[in-house]
Amino acid sequence: MSDQGTVTVSEVLDCIPIGAFHRRLLAICGSAWALDGMEVIIISFTLPVLIEAWTLSGLSAGLLGSASLMGMVLGNWGWGWYADQRGRQVAFQWTVLVYGVFTGLTALAVGFYSGFALRFLTGVGLGGALAVDTSYLSEHLPTDRRGRYLVYLDAFWPVGYVLAVVFAWVFLAALPSGGMITVPVVGAVAGWRLLFAAASFPALLVFVIRSQLRETPYYLARTGDVEGANERLAAIAEENGEEHTPPEIEGVESSAAASVSRLFAPDIRRQTLMIAAAWFAINFGYYGVFIWLPQTVGAAGVVGNVYGYFLLVGLVQFPGYFSAAYLVEKIGRKPTLGSYLVLSGVFTFVFATSMPGVSLFGLGFSGFWPFFGGLLAASFFSLGAWGAIYAYTPELFPTEARATGNGFAGGVGKIAAVIGPILAGALVESGYLAALVPLAIAFAAGGIVVLAFGRETRGEPLR
Fold this sequence. Notes:
Elements: H1 9-15, H2 20-53, H3 58-86, H4 88-105, H5 112-138, H6 143-154, H7 157-173, H8 176-179, E1 180-183, E2 187-190, H9 191-210, H10 217-222, H11 226-240, H12 269-290, H13 293-299, H14 306-315, H15 317-330, H16 333-353, H17 368-392, H18 402-427, H19 432-453
Antiparallel strand pairs: 1-2
């Protein structure tokens, strides 16, 4: 209870144990999250096909591969601000529709310019979904489970990665007739077009499911709709089969949505800069590695069915997430995120030095297993770091600026996500060590920043 004898939204949520409502909400949010992951990664498999089909230069290929990430910068910032102004629920729903529609339309692209535009617009929806989803889910969770459930949310990302691998194998490798298939009425269609078309349907289904969701009690209370917040809390308790004590009007403070300048107010400025640096580091390293992963694996001389190796890289991400889910509640958000980022850098360096022909002060490794073992470990820790950063970020900002803060940090990250693959693609002409070491350094530097300047939020109620 608060000092005034009333209860707050956070206190009521803390009195409602995890139950059917929370599991259903996690499934809905997680299904969209998985599709976000599939949409982001799928370009890494289609890019080699498009380079050949459209005779793209190296620069054009890099820009096309980064187009959705560029759109995600705008989506992170724009939809995050919109969610604080107009509500999480409406933004939560429409972001999925945007990326679902433009993913499908990408199947109609006829060259670099139309492909770039459609991938950019897909990214606008994707970036918004990532910014809004964490705010929406976090504002329905009790304090003692919030961090773990937000990591569980991000654990749906490798589900999307696995889906991308399966879809790519079906439409780019398993189809007969050189990747073409005959579609009634339409005729022969390239496999990559069918891949984008197929990828859009699950997102449209999630849009329909999301239309049944309601606004968060935090947002309703913050905007002065105390009755609506009470009804929302009562509905959560009822679905979970628990008794419910609604907050009294005096216990809820309404406030206007904050502008971006709120993120740099003295009370949270340091944490805004810290988490933005962490987002920059994780995006720079992760997308620099994974957008070019098919080419990297090929250059390492891996033989056999490469899709099987990609599948293993995706599967090892699950224990990475689950270990982070345990540690964010056991030892805290700050040490988990910081250490996982540092270890991501260490193992990125390990598999970089095991590439063929690399010899760095005698540290180069030889053979398949040093390369693939380092890659699996880097995948494990980098995706665990993703889970930790999504649990950590919304807890650093007050309710009136939470979605804006999520969007700002994510937008800074997506700028790095654009730079990372382009820089790696440019440096690879000097060798894979030159391309991969900056990514390893970025991972490690981000972890050091978190450990040095981060504030622990484990056990704190949302403000």
